[in-house]
Amino acid sequence: MKLIKKINRSYIVFSSVSLIAGLILIYAVMQIIISGETEEVLSMTKESVVANLKKGNEVNFVPYVEVKELTRSNYAKAETFIDTLIYNEQENEYDSFKQLKSVYRFNGKSYLITVRSDNIDPSDIMLSVGLPAFIVLFFMIILSGFFVNRINTSIWKPFYENLEVLKNFKVQDSTKLELKRSEIDEFEYLNKSIAGLTEKIKDDFNKQKEFSENTSHELQTPLAVIKAKVETLLQSNRLGNEEVGHLQSIITTLNRLVRLNKSLNLLNKIESIEYLRKSEYHLSEIVSKKIDEFHEIAETKKLTVTKNIERDISLLINGDLLDILISNLFSNAIKYNVNEGFINFRIDDDNLTIENSGPDPGKDTLKLFDRFEKGSHSADSTGLGLTIVKRICEINHASIKYTYSDQKHFVVIHWDKTG
Length: 419
Hints:
The chain is an alpha+beta fold. The protein contains 8 helices and 11 strands.
């Protein structure tokens, strides 16, 4: 969930809970206030009744004021407020009243004074006053939520724009990372930290790249010299069979080191400016070209190579990288196949599928894309072939999937044309 949505959702939940809690609190406070005001009015009414009694005036006004002369003095003198119901014959229902009873003595006589007032139901006031207030507050919350969302969107806009910049950031880019400025101090502090971090990453990458290129270059000459000297020794007639075997083992190891050095050098160069030049290629043409190139090698294992072009794919890609991609996959399909097996290329929509017979790799196929990971039948492999293939796919907006089932290898490459 995006941060803005989470903030807005939290605001709506908090506002709704606050509104409900506020209405409950208002209802409770109104009950207290109404009850207090009613009791005060009843006390004032009682005082008025007492004043009229002193003047000898008739003050009965049923059901609101009732004065009875007492013949016995067993009524408590303390004033009591109670809620009571009185039957209304005209409306045939009970009306709710708040009632005050008190005893007053005057000229040797005792009077029971009862004064009443209509009970005001807080819910009635809530309906007449609270409901309009609730509607007004509700729309104010909605309106303020809209403005809060607009304000949050405006505040966070540079942040999300910078996220897009970072998403497209490539460590090999020569241009400096340009982040959108913001009036928010925290965002500016974050921008400075990110800019400093990316510059350090680029510097470390360039140093590592330079080191790898220098190392690869420096290794080429000694390896070539060693290989030449060993081959010279092999041509000598003074060596026995054991010495020849040792030298042939050395040659095999040297060849593997040469291939490993070339593969590592290729991985280092794969994202350099050398491979950023792109042209349009038709995948069917490249596959047909590679089938012709690898024909003789495939014949050594008596492999049947077929292609099925359901729908051709037009790619904007560097030609050298595309050549390396198809060559590595074709080479693997031949190398890890069985005699009199098959290889089938299928192109449909945005997918290239290479299916070939062969033994179980003996390892999780996902791990074979990692550096130096090899299958159980790949003792002489550098373990970098599929790593190179995967990296080429990544920088060209393509995904690769490798599975094995029913004694068949399946490699599927899908090009995302929206990337």
